[in-house]
Amino acid sequence: MKKGFTLIELLAVIAILGVILLIVMPSVTGILSRTQGRLNNEQKTAILNAARQWGTTNLAETDGKIYYNGSEKKYVTIKELQDSGYLEDKTIKDMTDKGDVSKDTKICINYKDYQYVYEYDGEC
Questions:
Q1: Spatial separation of the C-alpha atoms in residues 124 and 109, rounded to whole Å
Q2: How far is Cα 65 from Cα 62, in angstroms, rounded to an integer?
Q3: What residues does 67 pair with on adjacent strands?
Q4: Could you tell me the residue ranges of all domains in the chain?
Q5: What CA–CA distance (Å, rounded) separates 115 from 34?
Q6: Is residue 85 classed exposed, middle or buried when 0-12, 13-18 and 19+ CB atoms within 10 A define those classes?
Q7: Are 51 and 107 in contact (CB under 8 A)?
Q8: Beta pairing partners, 116
Q9: Residue-level pLDDT at 73
Q10: What pLDDT does residue 1 have?
Q11: What's the distance, CA 23 to chain centroid?
Q12: What is the DSSP string of 1-56?
C-alpha cells in the first residue's frame, strides 16, 4: 500500500493556509505602517534636536529677529546641519513612502516668548 497525501488533502491544507494568510495579513500591514510612522517621527525629532544644537552654537537674537553670522536667518536646512557636523552626512529615508528626504528640507526658526522655536519643514 502506498503512503502519501491525496490531492484533496493537499488542497485542503492550501485553502487553510490561504484563510490564515487573509486573517493575519491586515494585522501585519497595520503593524508595519505604525512602525514606519514612528520611525519618521523619531527621525524628525532627531533632526529638530540637531537644529536646536546648531542654533545654540550659531544663532543670536536682537529685537525678536534671529541672526547667523550677521545675516537674518529664518531656517536651517538638513544639508547645513550635515555640513556643519550636527547630522550624519548620509541620505535620510522617508519610511512612509520609501523616498529620500530632500537635503533642502527646512527647519524653521522663530523667536517667541524669549526662546527659539524650531519647526520641521514648516512655512518659513
A1: 8
A2: 5
A3: 60, 72
A4: 7-120
A5: 33
A6: exposed
A7: yes
A8: 111
A9: 94
A10: 67
A11: 29
A12: ---S--HHHHHHHHHHHHHHHHHHHHHHHHHHHHHHHHHHHHHHHHHHHHHHHHHH
Do 82 and 26 form a contact (C-beta atoms < 8 A)?
no
pLDDT at 11 over 90: yes
Give 64: exposed, middle or buried? Use CB within 10 Å, 0-12, 13-18, 19+: exposed
Looking at every residue in the chain, the average pLDDT score rounds to 92
Percent of the chain with pLDDT over 90: 83
Please state, in angstroms and rounded to a whole number, the distance separating the CA atoms of residues 7 and 38.
Answer: 46
The residue count for the chain: 124
Residue 104 cell numbers, joined: 533642502
- In sign, the C-alpha dihedral spanning 80, 84, 90, 92 is negative
Beta strand 65-68 with 92-93 is unpaired
- Closest by Cα among 104, 107, 58, 60 to 85: 58
Residue 95 binned pLDDT confidence (cut-offs 50, 70, 90): confident
DSSP 8-class letter at 58: H
C-alpha cell, 40: 519618521
